[in-house]
Amino acid sequence: MQRSIRLILSALLLTLIFSSSIYASTAGNTGLTGLWEYPTAEIPDDGGGRFGYTKASPYEYFFLDMSWLPWLEINARLTTFDTIRISDNGGIGWSGEFRGRKYMDKAIDLKAVLWHNRLSSKNWYLPSIAVGVFDVMGTELFKSYYGVATWRWDKTALTLGYGSDRLNGFFAGIEYDFTNWLTLKAEYSPLDYTGDKAGNYHVMRELPKKKFNIGLVAKTNWGLEGSISWQRGNEFVFTLSQRINLAGGSFIGPYKKSYSAPGDPRPVNWDDIKSDELISRIKTGLEKFARVRDVDITLQDIEHGHKLTLAYENYGYASHAEAMTRVLVVLSAVMPETEEVLLIAKNAGVPIVQADFPGTILFDIRARSLRGEESLKTAIFAWAEGKRDKPDSNVLGSKARHEIKAMVTYDPRIDQTLGKSYMDRWNIDLIYKGRYSNGWQSIIDVKFPIINNIETHDRTGLWWEKDLNDKIRIQQAGFTYAHNILGSNKIWLFGEGGYLNEEWFGANLWARIYGKDGGWWIGARAAYLHDRDPYSFAGLTEGRYIYRDNRGTTFDSKSGDEWRLRTWLQANYHVKGLDLDLRADWGKFVDGDKGWKFSVTRHWDDTAIGFWYMDTDVHAPDKSFTKAGVHLEIPADKWFGTWFGNSSAHTWEQDTLLISTWRSQSGREGGVIRSPERFMDQLRPAALKLNVQKLLQDYCSYDEAEIKRDSQEIRGLLDYIIK
């Protein structure tokens, strides 16, 4: 305990030494934006958030908080109780009297901003208003609802609210910014701790002496925050957190993408340079400053000037919008005055989307000023028009690209068993990827476990994930194919076959019909699946693995056909301004249960966080649904930037359950090598236009003398309703 306090105090001291910040709102004990134990009506900027740790004995909080929408804050947290232990067979008792790990509780907190006061002189007296709920899913030990109002005037903020259940009535607080880096927070806290218990054991063995909390928060300009406070009249509380930014160039720190272009003198007039020489300059610039391949270049004379048509395929960036932006930056440095610029983005050699810009966009990029953004507003993004005939020359790079790499991968498992709260496995993956120019792609991924702390052999381990063992195995191996029917680019077939993931061998087929600008799609999926042997490098089972809940796994060779054919109907709607996907799937899942899966996914260009809810005819124990979870897509650049030289096109994908109990044989969807979403989502015309606009605005407002973190506007829900 003393060692932990010393470490936290040392971190707080470093925070003070390097402090200087522009952030106003700070985290409460649980990670949600607020005072100490109570929320305010403020949230981080859109896409912003924090992760961190709070020691508030007998509670410890590990949290990840973010503004998932401009008006909605989501806080995911794990809470451990110092006073209560739980054994691997589910027994509960007091710490010191009972063997086992600390009791751990999962929770999700939500806060919706109804009205956000922008502090204009006309409405200085109006507060920001928010409503929310603590512990919306899981055991719901801390379930409570609240409404809150916050008035902010320059350095001072006042908060008044009312909460139900554990929040126990009216609460209030004040915040005052002494400087940009030091904030005082004080609150009146009538919190009711009597309901905090596991089984028959109360977390608080002695109730608080006081109802007032006060403390200081120190902030740095690179996002680290630390606080120390005196709470309940008997306890020092420490919090250490790091701000993140899903909408920016990196999660941590004020890193912004840098763009480069040729520095040679640019021809002013078309008469100053021959077409072949200009094409050669474009090719050289793209080879050096943009990681694209399979480039086709066409120069045309049109009525009022000249037109450039350039088709390319992105291979070096997780973001297709970044690839297009880099192409435009290179063109701005080499092109004479041009009337029109048409860019065609391809994937696996197939043209997907075209962007028609006025030629003035290149002048604006050179001047680093969008001049009212007219060149962006008049740009037209649409599905590419059929299969483009390639010229015999002017092709940059080969028709196929082969990539071989080794990667360190990580498999974490948090609060999955009663015996251990955290287990993990480290691996080295050897990966081959092939990109071809006719719609085909291929992959071979062999996983070599190197450090494995995950137990799968008995009831106390992850018996339902037998593949998380020490064996060297094929993770994925197969081919994927994409084909647009009739050259319309609105009707697509996607197919794949091989080792789909660590559990399944088989094939997937998708059919999709897309709306005009990708704003919606409808379709279907068919999967033909066979269980893989989890202890074999590449072998299949001769029967099925039967997952018997709470009793481990058995192998049954008499359970019916080894192969399973499953189908789903699918539909998706894209909310353009938010880059938000609302999706529904209905069908027969792998184990024969029928039902729905609903998901909502927010994108920040190449980064995505989504939540899904599944309701089939087989429910989780004591639940009215089957499963619920979160879907993550995190590009490597968000963590590392360009520390290792070039940008990376790698994106980490993960689905994680948000509930601790479920039926092992229900809601299973089978494996996927590369879904149509990974192939198409960023290249939908509406989504690509939104993200290219943001990157160009960022590039043209870039100031090397003062690098600042990206800031997205906070809005209230009423802004959208009124609008």
Account of the 3D structure:
This protein is mostly beta strands. A hairpin with a 2-residue loop joins strand 1 and strand 2. Helix 2 (about 275-290) packs across helix 3, helix 3 crosses helix 4 (about 360-365) and helix 3 crosses helix 8 (about 685-700). The radius of gyration is 28 Å and the shape is globular.
The structural class is mainly beta
How many helices? The count is 9
Beginning-to-end CA distance, first to last residue: 53 Å
Number of strands: 35
Report the major sheet: 13 strands, antiparallel
Shape: globular
Strand order of the largest sheet: 21-22-23-24-25-26-27-30-31-32-33-34-35
The radius of gyration is 28 Å
Low-confidence stretches: 11-22, 388-398, 703-712
Helix content: 10-25%
Strand content: 35-45%
Overall pLDDT level: 83
List the helices and strands and how they pair.
Blueprint: H1 2-17, E1 48-56, E2 59-69, E3 72-86, E4 92-94, E5 101-115, E6 128-134, E7 144-153, E8 156-163, E9 169-177, E10 182-188, E11 197-198, E12 201-202, E13 212-219, E14 224-231, E15 235-245, H2 275-289, E16 292-302, E17 305-314, H3 320-334, E18 340-347, E19 350-358, H4 360-367, H5 374-377, E20 380-383, E21 401-414, E22 422-435, E23 440-452, E24 473-484, E25 491-499, E26 504-514, E27 520-531, E28 544-548, E29 552-556, E30 563-575, E31 580-588, E32 594-604, E33 607-616, E34 627-635, H6 636-640, E35 651-657, H7 676-680, H8 685-700, H9 717-722
Parallel strand pairs: 17-18
Antiparallel strand pairs: 1-2, 1-15, 2-3, 3-4, 3-5, 5-6, 6-7, 7-8, 8-9, 9-10, 10-13, 11-12, 13-14, 14-15, 16-17, 18-19, 19-20, 21-22, 22-23, 23-24, 24-25, 25-26, 26-27, 27-30, 28-29, 30-31, 31-32, 32-33, 33-34, 34-35
Helix pairs in contact: 2-3, 3-4, 3-8
